[in-house]
Design brief:
mainly alpha; single chain
Length: 112
């Protein structure tokens, strides 16, 4: 089940996860493993009524996270984007992966 709260939680967690990975790899650290429950669990908070105030806060939260992500990516050179340090996808691939992940928003539909 994908409620608005769950969709917002998953998008924010996903963005935070990749941002933390990027930052760790840039300074030569191993990214911390995540312990998100992801889609496998639906929490009580996910089932709470979704209000206009929740939508306003979600927009603010996700907009700020997206700006942090975009600002960070904008500081990287083409070489850093394509030949990224550490294990895993290049930073460009991470960005493209995230750009295409609209699953949760699509599952919930348009919120007004």
């Amino acid at each position: 089940m994908h409620t608005p709260h769950k969709a917002i939680r998953r998008v924010a967690d996903h963005l935070l996860d990749h941002l933390a990975e990027l930052e760790a790899r840039l300074v030569g650290e191993e990214p911390l493993p995540d312990h998100w429950h992801a889609s496998a669990s639906t929490t009580r908070a996910d089932l709470a009524p979704f209000t206009r105030e929740d939508l306003d806060e979600a927009r603010s939260r996700l907009t700020r996270l997206a700006r942090i992500w975009a600002n960070r990516l904008d500081t990287l050179t083409e070489d850093q984007l394509d030949d990224s340090p550490g294990e895993g996808w290049s930073f460009r691939q991470l960005a493209e992966h995230f750009e295409g992940s609209t699953y949760y928003a699509d599952a919930v539909g348009r919120l007004t």
